[in-house]
Description:
- Helices cover 53% and strands 21% of the residues.
- By secondary structure, the protein is of the alpha/beta class.
Amino acid sequence: MGExxxxxxxxxxxxxxxHKVLLKDIAVISASEQWKLLLxxxxxxxxxxxxxxxxxxxxxxxxxxIREQFPHLEIQPLGPNQTxxxxxxxxxxxxxxxxxxxxxxxxxxxxxxxxxxxxYDVSMQEVQQQLHFMMTGRWEKxxxxxxxxxxxxxxxxxxxxxxxxFKKRINEEPSPLEVEMxxxxxxxxxxxxxxxxxxxxxxxxD
Length: 206
């Protein structure tokens, strides 16, 4: 019986263009020290220009490639069956100030319009006027003592809801937006695996 090697693929990694993908890049290896050092440097694939943005590594193809060179090894795969390799361009590019300003202005106006339209739909000004009348007995067109704290509270509430103040996280709990982004990324990764990986696609067709 040969040496037992435990192999657990990573879910996703990022590599630069024209990177030589080694086994240690996409997998966690558990074996004797000698075999671990050798397998970590095991060459798997050379990133090419025509690969575009994504390359998928399937555990079946990885194990087969290792056994071609080391047939006496007993590979025990664990964890995920595929690794998604994102090909990134790590060249330092200065952000386009005009483009960033335009996107910021567009998002600001869009968010402001959404809030104002919501307040218009629910007649927020009339509600605040009625509250002012009920509490003071006087009718006021612009009850600023209610409207100003409400506006401040609205901004603070958004900060607490998204759990971020610029780049600083308020606490360790994920925000609802982060949870939705995580679910979206999980679905996107699953789609990529099913449509980009030829091994998985062949299995699905069978």
